[in-house]
Amino acid sequence: MDEPDWASVTEEKLWKFLAWHLSENGIDSVLVGGAVVSVYSEGLYRSGDLDIAYTSYDRAVWLKIQTLMKGLGFNKTSRHFIHPKCKHLFVEYVSPPISIGEDYQILPAEKEISGKRIKLLSPTDCIKDRLASYVYFKARECLDQAILVAKRQPFLLKEIKRWCDEEGGEAKQAFLEFKNLLS
What we know:
alpha/beta; Beta Polymerase, domain 2; 7 helices; Nucleotidyltransferase family protein
């Protein structure tokens, strides 16, 4: 896969580039967090970073990721990977398991890019993830991001309600706010 134009690469294009290379090297990964909102909002929201979860508990996979990123021109700074030609985005890897609140039964969506299957949270799980950030970190902008995705992508409202009910407490209130803002 060709390198992106580093000066103007979007979250989606950088994710596709990295996920393709990860897959090519036998590393299973899933895009999570705010960059998923960038993908599903078709760039209306810009996260400024990519959170990529890897799914293996094998320490050798983490070492393989670091080697791959270095080979792609990224420098590791603390927990972030930064490409010297890409001043507007950085990458962070999240160790397993993938979860949204107390839910560990996450089934990612898949896309095919240049012969490789790459993964990201589904629109429904993206909305749940943003609601989780709203509930647990009091990040109002994450509720707005959930609404942005909901207005642009098909999703399962019943699944979001189920998740909010199971999370309990403030998540139930967040669901009501979410539903009211959709109308």
